[in-house]
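Lab notebook, bench 4. Continuing the backlog of folding jobs that were queued last week. Each job is logged with the same field layout so the records can be merged later without manual cleanup. Today's entry covers Multidrug resistance efflux transporter family protein, a 325-residue chain. Filled in by technician R.K.

JOB TYPE: sequence-to-structure
TARGET: Multidrug resistance efflux transporter family protein
LENGTH: 325
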Amino acid sequence: MRPIIFGIFAAFFFAFTFILNRSMELSGGSWIWSASLRYLFMVPFLLMIVVCRRNLKPLLLEMKRRPGVWLLWSFIGFVLFYAPLSFAAAYGPGWLVAGTWQITIISGSLLAPLFFETKKMESGSVKVRGRIPFVGLMMSLLILIGVGIMQGDQADSLSAKAFMWGVLPVILASFAYPLGNRKMMEVCGNRLDAYQRVLGMTLASLPFWLLLSIYGAAAVGLPSIGQTVQSLLVALCSGVIATVLFFKATDLVKGNMSKLAAVEATQSFEVLFAVSGEWLILSAPLPTFVSWVGMLLVIIGMILHSYVSQRETPIKLPIVKYKSV
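JOB STATUS: finished
OUTPUT FIELD FOLLOWS
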C-alpha cells in the first residue's frame, strides 16, 4: 500500500507542472524556459539533500563509471519527457495535457518486454523477461477512450495544427519517462537511493538544458521574473518533491512489472488535481460535462488497471541465467 500512497502524493505535486506551465504560457512565457529552468533550479535543492545525507561521493563514482549510460537514459527520461510536455502546454489547458499524459500508463505496460523481472524460485531467484500485462492493458483501454473523449470535446475549439501539437508531444513524453526511469533503476541496481538517482539524472541532463537555454536566449530572450519564480516553484514541487516520491514508490516495487504498472497508474490523479488547481489558481472555466465523462473513464481505467495488475498470475517464461541469492 505504501507505494500507492507515495504515487498519489507524487501525482498531487506533479499536477503543479501542468497548472504553472499553463500559467506561464498564458502570461506570455516560452515553453523553452519553462522546461530548462525547472531542471536548472532542481540542482541546488537535490544537491543539498544528497550532501546532507552524505551520499554524493557514491553517486559521482557511479556516474564516472558509466557516463555514456547516464547521459543516454537521463536524456530520454528527463529531456524527452519534460521538453515535449512543456511544449504541449502552449496548445491546451493544463487538465487536458494532464489527461492525455495518462497514456503513460499504457506506454509503461508496452515497455515491459524490454526489462527483466525477479522471480523467486525454490532454488533461489531468477530473472525472466517481462511480459506485457494484456489483461491490465485491456482495462487501460478505458483510459484511451477517456483521453479520446476529452480531446474530442476540445477539438472544435482548436485548429488541426494546435490539436496535433498538443497531443503528439505528450505521447512521446509518455514513453520516454517510464523508459528512462526504469532503465536507470536497472543500471543503478540497489547501489543508489531515489535522491541520488534523481540528482544523477538531473546532472546528466544538464548539458541538454543548457543548450536549450542558450537557444531560448537567442530565440525569445531572457525569461521574465514571473516565469522565473513560477519555474522555481515547479522545480521544488514537481521536480524535487514529486519526482523523489515517485522514484521512491517505483523503488519499492522494483523487479515486479505488474506492481510497477500499478504505481505508474496512480498518476491518473494528476487530472483531478490539475482541474482543481486551474479552477482555484487560474480561475479557469471548469471542463464541460463531456470532458468530465472522459476524466471519469480515465480514473476508472486507472483503478481497474491497478486491481488487475495486482491479481494477474504470471505465466512461465524461459529462464535467463542468473546467480541464485
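OBSERVATION: Residues 160-188 form the longest helix (29 residues).
SIGNED: R.K.
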